[in-house]
Design a protein that fits this description.
The chain has 2 domains: 10-174, Rossmann fold (3-Layer(aba) Sandwich); 175-212. Strands 3-2-1-4-5-6 form a 6-stranded parallel sheet, sandwiched between helices. The chain contains 9 helices and 6 strands; from the N terminus they run βααβαβαβαβαβααα. By secondary structure, the protein is of the alpha/beta class.
Length: 212
């Protein structure tokens, strides 16, 4: 059984971004601001690049009403595999599961454009197969707060770790003396503007250290 108290390890984690499509954002999300959802999704993708984590993208019925993935996401991750499917539960799609298994990673950071379907179903499926799954709720939306709560309760009961973007990024960084510190701080400055003050302070300290 996986250790529920094990921390996220960038060398053992993969990022799965599920169905962040423009059409779904237009008609399926009303519990949170779409701009924040997109911001947090891109923040996760950028963090995956900083920590050299494999990323898998997937779409649901992209030729239908759901439409294409966010252009910013595909521009940021031009080499990430995109698994197109019509099966609702991504974990029931053998191509998606095959891509996940091919990463060789045991920890899966997941976000889905809809928390109660795109995220919850594959998160529960992966947890059931022994993966250590982190469900990132503020990069996942849904139709109302009742649906969001139902999603979290159901995933939690299935052994999925409920998380948010800031939690995941901070847990990946873990120590501000690591080489990724300035890149991580730069993401905070970009995606969480109030952190810009701290980033400027870090740059100041770094410049003083370099000067001496």
């Amino acid at each position: 059984m996986k250790n529920q108290y094990q921390k996220l390890d960038p060398k053992n984690a993969a990022m799965l971004l599920i169905d962040h499509q423009v059409g779904t954002m237009a008609f399926g999300i009303s519990d949170m601001d779409a701009t924040n959802l997109k911001n947090n999704t891109l923040w996760l993708a950028e963090a995956a690049k900083v920590f050299d984590m494999p990323v898998i993208l997937t779409t649901s019925n992209p030729n239908g009403a759901n439409g294409p993935l966010f252009k910013e996401l595909t521009d940021l991750l031009p080499d990430a595999p995109i698994i197109d499917r019509v099966i609702i539960d991504a974990w029931q799609d053998e191509n998606f599961v095959g891509a996940v298994k091919a990463t060789g990673r045991e920890q899966l950071v997941m976000a889905g454009v809809t928390a109660d379907v795109c995220l919850a179903f594959p998160a529960i499926g992966a947890a059931g197969e022994g993966y250590d799954v982190y469900a990132v709720m503020d990069a996942s939306g849904t139709i109302n707060q009742h649906a969001m709560l139902a999603s979290m309760f159901r995933m939690d009961r299935a052994g999925v770790k409920i998380a948010n973007t800031n939690m995941v990024v901070a847990e990946l960084q873990m120590d501000w003396t690591l080489p990724t510190a300035m890149d991580t701080a730069g993401l905070y400055q970009k995606r969480l503007p109030n952190f810009g003050y701290i980033y400027q302070h870090m740059e100041f300290i770094q410049s003083k250290t370099t000067a001496t």
